[in-house]
Amino acid sequence: MTLDLWAGPKPVLRCRTVAGRELKKVPAALVAEPVVRELTALAEWIGDHAAGVLTSVEQWMTQSLPVPAALIREVWPDPYWRRALRYAVVAPCGGTEADVERAGVLTGVVPRPGGALVVAGLDGEERELGDAVVVMPHPVLLDPRGTGLLEQWRRLLVSLGGEQGIEQVDRAVYVRPDCSPAPGSRGLREGISAFHGALFASGAHVERVVRSFGGRIDGERARFAFGHCGRRYGMVADLRHQGPAAPVSLYGFRFAEARERQGAGAYDAVPRPVWSEGIRAMATLYNEREAAWGGASGSVAADADAGYQGFLVACAEYATAGAPAAGGLEPRQPAGARRLLDAGAVLAGPPVGQDEESLTARRYGSPWLAGGECFVRLVVARAVGAQDAVARALGLEPDAGEATPVGRAPIRPLDLLTRVCRAHPGLAREAMGLLAPLRTCAKTAGTKPGRAATRLRARLQKLTATHPELLPHALDEGARIVAAEGSVAMARPLYVEARTAEQRLGGIDEDALWELVSEFRELGVVDERLLKQYRTDLAARSSESDAYESYRRLVLEWCRAESTIPTPVVRDGVTHHRQRDVPSSFAVELAQGVGGPPTVDDTQAEIFHLLLRNGGFERATASVWEAWAAPLERDLAEHTDTADRLRTHFPEPGGSSAAARTAAAEAWLALMARVGLLERFTGTAEPVSAESAERANAWLTQFFGRYAGLRQPVAGLEPVVASVASLMRAAGETREPLVGLKTRSLGGDFWGVGFDLGLLALMKRVGVPLGEPAGEQGVYVLQWLQRRGTAGVESVLADPGFREPIRGELTGAVRGSLGYTVTRHCLTPFPKVTRQVAASEPLRELMAGILDERARRVRAGGAGGLFALQDLLLHVEPFVVAGAVKHVDGYVREALAADPAVLLAETLRAGCLAHEHQGDDRATACGLRRVTAGHTRELLESTDEIVRDRHAEMFDVEPATRRSRYLDFRPGSAFAQDLLRGVEKALPGISDDSCRSRALGAVQGVLWCERWQATLRGFMP
Fold first, then answer.
1. C-alpha angle 45-48-52 in degrees, rounded to nearest 5
2. pTM score, whole prediction
3. How many CB atoms lie within 10 A of CB 508?
């Protein structure tokens, strides 16, 4: 095995023949040999170690994170750490930022305990840097204005004869401009257009480049997030992206913090390193255009540098022209310790909280290293023993002393080898054999998570056949990998299978399993269903009480984590705003303790407090609220904001029925009265004011909105509404009458929703000051009659304010067009509702007015006489069909007695006179101007029964099932061929095609009216 630090992170395994000739690769026959397997495992371990070192150091540099000088001092003997750190530019950490004035190139460490770092400044002189914490600043911080300082650092490196192990001073750097370009034709929404118009042949190629910078494609956007000093900043690029195989167009991109800012200082909210890394990502993408697809929509720059220079020129021109200031920035506090640790920083000193642990440097000797060199691993204190076991299995020797503390780190899940060696120290080598399929899974999980998980599962089952105790650990590691790539759904089956394998093995470490469930809960893999399953399985293995307590601890942890998540959070390049929402099942599951009501201890009280504030009671029923009554009272006593939060909380009804809504409303009113909140909600405990009346009215609206559709009487409701009414009257406030009363529970055959007119009647009864109905607001009175009838709502039906809306709902629609058949009134299919309308005096009066208006139009005749008859028949039909003609008898008889022949003659004559014919002579010659009732009567009498039946068949159906249809009366149509001969024979000569079509339609309408009258006569007694 050959170690070459500069050739690659992974050592090379070589094989020679007996004659000394080196082979290109290890023969397949030797791969399974123990020596080869051991060397392969060691090479992979060293490769992982080297790659991890480079990743850590580059992360510290790109995000300018603080690092204890003690850490650098302890890892210096490791050649891989030394390669990554040596010749890096470091600077003392001055508070929260790097003190670049004192920066220098790291050349060594003073060889004594606690020795300082040795750096060389721009003057070439070496000096000791004794600061306890240093920063490897991003190169843009070394030369923020692009004045040539970075070139001086490059020349210093050349003079030192060194080469940086990380890309720092030779990194592509993009200076942030002080001003944005002038607003262009593409506007603000497209943001920065420096690389606009690039075309790519393959969406898959774009995805690979985007992923290499930590971004991902989401629809037609590429989303990125870049870190700096413990914070994340988003960037979004707009694409024309339609899949991996389709071409892609690149448009503008924008930083989330600079969105909709224009002018001088528009980009100041974006830290310079974030700006540089974002532009670097977009420049790389731009330069990755395939040659065959290097064209663009419009004129584009030859390369990314030219495009960015053009952008900077546009910025400078706008600044010179007197660009307005973009406005001030909100001050942003420096990131706290937790943010820095989560970003990858190592902070000096011992752990200071429960979520931190000590980070140590552990040294391992190896015969492959010489000259006092050793491998140095950064290991948390609790994993040192397991890491030692791994090292011994690889032939490495742990240092005789204790691991040296170098700082503190956040508590994170341990890696696979550490987990296995803590539980099964003798299986370290076997566990190393599982790393290869896990690496393969990590490569493919980003683009094909389902396939990666499936293949990993099959591979691990084969590899662990002889040691099944390794399978749960390996599956869990696979679930972590897939979840980290953003596919929680694909990670979940791996987690479930790991628990199944664990159950088969038995002997479960409950403490370790609890930590595992907690970890996967944080990743999103464990949802409420799996958490409940954990409780069930634990109860079967242990006891109900142990399961309840473990479940309760996990719920509390879940609620605490949810409450600390900021509602605005940067993810995938943009700022997301979210509502905190913990599962409602937690309140249900913890409503009952083991064998009785739960104990109201501190844990239960904190869980209630967090559930209430994070959506955990949004769908809780009244029985669940009742079970939490004691913690509720305690929370009221300890937190002043609890009462206001309860204003917007109401129990979910136990079903969709009116009885369920009534029961929930009664239970809530009783509970609120018992805890002393009802008077506060109704405003009776406050001085009379417009504000108190508004709050009480708002609470009543929400109460009605949750329980509209209940069935009265409701215990305790009328006094509550009366209290709100009294307060509103005293404050001189009014309430919109129908607000909060709409509900789908009252929906049915007329509309999908309805208004609870019972609650409206209650408000009128207790004197709530009601305003006028808003605008064209309907009442849905027919829907209420179908569901509840007229009892108790007489005052609403008789209210003058609702007269016009109700009248509109009782009025049927006739198209008034000869091209359509008549339809039916909405009441016709519902005789029961029709009889209720007839029995209600207010509704009966409204209906009489509607009928009277149509009867007058029938008597008036003229051009609209025929349509007026159809309209009258339409409105009397429901009462005739329902057998409720007593109160509309006169209108029914008038509709049945009307002579269609007379109305037909008037309609034809008036229509001809109103129509503009082609030429005066043709208008004079048109015979419809002289048509009389005798002509139309002769026409109707000459129409034989076969023709009548044929033209009335679509109308001659049950009234409840009749539908409107379109008819074609144009010459040559089937209708025209059937009726035209009789029309032209009986009526005076028609000289105009429009008059001819109108005549055909009118005759068809009269045939319907005759059949309609005949049908209704059949219903009459």
1. 140
2. 0.77
3. 16
